[in-house]
Write a structure and sequence with these properties.
Layout: E1 4-12, E2 15-16, E3 21-25, E4 31-37, E5 44-51, E6 56-60, H1 65-68, E7 79-89, E8 94-110, E9 114-115, E10 118-119, E11 123-137, E12 140-146, E13 151-154, E14 157-158, H2 161-166
Antiparallel strand pairs: 1-2, 1-7, 3-6, 4-5, 6-11, 7-8, 8-11, 9-10, 11-12, 12-13, 13-14
Length: 169
């Protein structure tokens, strides 16, 4: 019971989304699997390959130009999304801070419908083409995926350091 979520907030670039944020979903973390067959063996095993493309979703109340204006940008004109979370350790009563920084593109906006004088549902946004994912809990890196530096850090261990050295990345 050390990670009960007790609140969160999102910034898109430097714009605080708190007043119109309905919900935010971090990207699911998944690796592509590669089937490995052994000659003469009776078994096949799936081994992890690349980290799958990441997609984050956010629903907001209303229609906000500051958010819509991030749609349609090209690679290089990245959008930074920063997610802040308060975690409670229910056994000790201690709060922890979590920050997840994403850099990618707002590639999808699904406007809310209108019914009468009000919005029928939420405006849905999807951030993809994510080239940086950095998850920090109480100042310690839990995960960091950086496409441009070919970096994969898990729980403080850089899994790509030797790989990058060997291929002179």
């Amino acid at each position: 019971m050390d990670g009960i979520i007790r609140g969160g907030n999102v910034y898109v670039q430097e714009i605080n989304q708190r007043l119109h944020l309905d919900n935010f979903k971090l990207p699911p973390l998944k690796r592509e699997m590669i089937d490995f067959f052994m000659g003469g063996g009776f078994f096949k095993v799936s081994l992890p390959g690349e980290v799958s493309p990441l997609v984050a979703e956010m629903a907001v109340d209303g229609s906000h130009q500051s958010l819509r204006s991030r749609f349609g940008r090209e690679p290089g004109d990245w959008t930074t999304v920063t997610y802040y979370e308060r975690l409670l350790d229910a056994t000790t009563g201690v709060n922890k801070g979590r920050i997840v920084m994403l850099r990618g593109l707002l590639n999808e906006i699904e406007p809310a419908g209108v019914e009468g004088l009000k919005a029928k549902d939420k405006t849905m946004t999807r951030f993809s083409s994510i080239v940086l994912y950095h998850d920090i809990v109480d100042g310690v890196t839990a995960h960091k995926f950086d496409v441009f530096t070919n970096t994969l850090i898990i729980d403080g261990t850089n899994y790509t350091a030797e790989h990058n050295r060997l291929i002179a990345a």
